[in-house]
Design a protein that fits this description.
The protein is an alpha+beta fold. Helix content is about 45%, strand content about 15%. The protein is built from 14 helices and 16 strands. The protein has helices spanning about 10-35, 65-70, 100-120, 145-160, 200-220, 235-245, 270-280, 295-305, 335-360, 370-380, 395-415, 420-435, 440-450, 455-470, and strands at about 45-55, 75-80, 85-90, 90-95, 125, 165-170, 175-180, 190-195, 225, 230, 260, 305-310, 310-315, 320-330, 385-390, 395. The strands form five sheets. Strands 1, 2, 3, 4, 5, 8, 13 and 14 form an eight-stranded antiparallel sheet that branches. It has a two-stranded antiparallel sheet with strand order 6-7. The radius of gyration is 21 Å and the shape is globular. The two termini are about 40 Å apart.
């Protein structure tokens, strides 16, 4: 989403040129995939994590431009709001000591970033939604100074032709009308990337969809928005409603949403997702590129404005061969570096195991409609959710995690030849979270039960725990 564009205003001719080039690149991708001419390298792992800049008052500090300029780290970049930043990690093969490498890489970058923030009298926080955020923080004066974000705001509002309406029914009810896309900045995430062999890409994509419900529940870390107690992971409805535009044919409100769970599994090829992008989603950033079709600049930019919770991406190997990555977008950011790596370990292991099983089946392990329902149940109720699994029986999610999904994740990591002590280390963190029934969201709610209404104290205590890098399953209420 962070790719910069050259202007914030476009003419009708820009849309027509973009549409033509997008069609050419989509056709070229279909040819390459049909010929098997994309990379067979993988699995290769990487991720992005979004974070908040705070002042000493634990309120958002809109100064990412000065922070990033002085930090001067190529792994750090701006997000939509001036109080948000993003950190990336270089991709590495998913084998051997990969989990420790990912941990050390993120921890090193995070510690440097946090130290730099403190030099600027700031604090850095990874959390799904900031408890101290107020609606009046989300105005265009706090929009990051990038053409991309201004253009995105312009095009989304033009498509909607009416204010953005947020309506979330959780423990409490939030109803808000807003006049720009800044509502999206209320949600920050941990986005996992998995480069996979082309021949297996649609299996990995489907496996990632199946893994979404347990992932969003385990990682839930966003119960409070504008002082309201909503879903266990309120990021999900926030982001869906903050963009809130659908597909072509003059139907701005659906039936396919730009932010959503998608329309189906990939039945035969990962190309089905890109064909759907071309056929069903209007262009909103018609940037002009002086590049050959083989660079896929138009296709990649268009794909970057369609935010499926599981999203296939096009990238390139070092030799220039195009590759497929699956992006799992469901986890909240935080609570700690070690929790994030444990979340990644669980996802990579479970996805690998499900992918292997899918290759042996003639039909999906679960109906797509049920996988979708599982996801929203898990986002709303977290570790308290009941979901339907492969035996078509409704199960308590903690029991399913303990009895089936954690063993599956362990088998998947073993299949990838991840070092056994690392498998034990990170999956034990997930296991502890399940046994204690405490993820970031539940800990926040337990804190608020003891200190009602004190969101500043909640954020300060959360920040202190985060700096200690103790798994959230061990956190106590002071």
């Amino acid at each position: 989403m962070g790719q910069e564009v050259h202007t914030e205003f476009y003419q009708p001719a820009d849309f027509e040129l973009f549409r033509q080039r997008l069609a050419i690149e989509t056709q070229l991708l279909e040819q390459l995939i049909t010929k098997g001419a994309c990379s067979e390298h993988g699995p290769i792992a990487g991720f992005e994590i979004e974070a908040w800049l705070l002042g000493d008052d634990m309120r958002p500090a809109p100064c990412n431009a000065s922070y990033l300029s002085s930090f001067n780290n190529p792994l750090a970049s701006a997000e939509l709001a001036k109080f948000n930043v993003e950190f990336n990690t270089p991709p590495i093969p998913l084998a051997g000591n990969a989990l420790i490498q990912l941990n050390n890489g993120l921890l090193g970058t995070w510690q440097q970033a946090e130290q730099h923030a403190r030099k600027m009298q700031l604090h850095l926080l990874m959390i799904g939604s900031l408890p101290t955020l107020r609606l009046d923080d989300l105005h265009l004066g706090n929009l990051s100074d990038m053409n991309r974000y201004r253009a995105l705001n312009e095009q989304i509002l033009k498509t909607r032709n009416r204010p953005i309406h947020l309506d979330i029914q959780g423990h409490e009810h939030l109803r808000v009308d807003h006049h720009d896309v800044m509502l999206e900045a209320a949600a920050t995430s941990f986005q996992l990337h998995l480069q996979c062999p082309l021949s297996l890409a649609h299996f990995y994509y489907n496996a990632s969809i199946l893994a979404s419900a347990p992932m969003v529940a385990l990682c839930a870390n966003a119960p409070f928005v504008f002082g309201k107690d909503l879903w266990h992971d309120s990021r999900i409805p926030i982001f869906e409603q903050a963009v809130g535009i659908g597909g072509l044919g003059g139907v701005a409100q659906g039936p396919l949403w730009r932010v959503g769970f998608g329309s189906d599994f990939a039945r035969h090829s990962i190309f089905e997702c890109f064909a759907e992008n071309l056929a069903h989603f209007p262009i909103i950033l018609p940037e002009c590129f002086d590049t050959e079709p083989e660079c896929f600049q138009y296709l990649r930019l268009h794909n970057g404005t369609i935010w499926r919770w599981n999203r296939p991406l096009i990238g390139f190997d070092d030799d220039g061969t195009p590759h497929i990555r699956i992006e799992q977008r469901t986890p909240s950011a935080g609570p700690t570096v070690i929790d994030a790596i444990a979340n990644a370990a669980f996802f990579y292991g479970l996805c690998q195991n499900l992918c292997e099983e899918l290759q042996t089946q003639q039909s999906p392990l679960l109906a797509f409609s049920q996988a979708k329902d599982n996801f929203y149940q898990a986002a709303r109720y977290g570790l308290e959710a009941h979901i339907v699994w492969f035996d078509e029986q409704k199960q308590r999610l903690p029991s399913l995690l303990k009895n089936e999904l954690l063993p599956r994740a362990a088998l998947g990591l073993k299949s990838l030849h991840i070092n056994q002590p690392d498998i034990n280390l990170y999956l034990d963190i997930i296991r502890q979270r399940v046994v204690s029934l405490q993820n970031g969201s539940i800990w926040q709610r337990r804190f608020m039960q003891k200190y009602p209404g004190d969101f500043v104290a909640l954020t300060r205590c959360y920040l202190d725990n985060q700096r200690r890098n103790r798994p959230v399953g061990e956190w106590e209420i002071p």
